[in-house]
Amino acid sequence: MMKSEDLVSFEVIEKETDIMVSAEKHLENQAREAVINYRRDIENYIKRNQAFLTSLEPVRVRGDAPEIVKVMAEAGKKAGVGPMAAVAGAVAEFVGRELIKFSEEIIVENGGDIFIRTGRKRSIGVYAGDKSPFTGRLAIEIGPSLDGVGICTSSGTVSHSLSFGMADAAIIISKDTSLADAVATAAGNIVKSEADIEKGIGLAKSVDGVAGALILIGDKMASWGDIKLV
């Protein structure tokens, strides 16, 4: 659900990757090329190192690995999870930064993980499942950020992504979208009941580079850091 009256929105689908992009003009061809190139980097590396795909713990990568692979591995290391926990956020940011060449305003959403570069305030709606009392009533306000910022979400009750927890939404904000994605997974894994919300927040606070966290489960919510709710 996109409501950016000042931007043009379009979808790009390549295999498992399904991104929604908002930009100052239609950039589907450029976005598709970027998605294909970065997917190829990841897929080719997996052929050389299968553990990069399957590991649920941090893995070391070769010195000649593509940049996106190195970034994913570093995010996984900081969060204590496997590198593929950062794949959606990594693709969103790497594609977004490619598109900055053509549009100063860029929003790339990839399965609930968002990279945004904006010169104005924007609101990111929170979706925590149809039964959540917060869905449709809560949003995160993102201020102008020409450096770009990542807002990533993990859920144990919504979507097909792997989570060992039961959080309806574990949302992390960071200037590093890959890191936001990996830490959202790690925090979501911890939250198995309402009693674990503070543990999830505590994990997010402990990772250098995380700017803010919001965790929702049932009718309970906790936030920390640079998060403005509207």
Question: What's the CATH first level?
Answer: Alpha Beta
- Count of individual domains: 1
Considering DSSP H and I runs of 4 or more, what fraction of the residues is helical? Answer: 25-40%
Radius of gyration: 17 Å
Q: Mind sketching the topology for me?
A:
Layout (H helix, E strand, L loop, with lengths): L7 E7 L2 E7 L4 H21 L2 H4 L12 H13 L7 H13 L6 E5 L2 E6 L3 E4 L13 E4 L2 E10 L14 E6 L2 H14 L6 H10 L3 E8 L2 E6 L2 E2 L1
Antiparallel strand pairs: 1-2, 2-3, 3-4, 4-7, 5-6, 6-11, 7-8, 8-9, 9-10
Helix pairs in contact: 1-4, 3-5, 4-5, 5-6
Short description:
This protein is 33% helix and 28% strand. With 230 residues, it is α+β, with helices and mostly antiparallel strands.
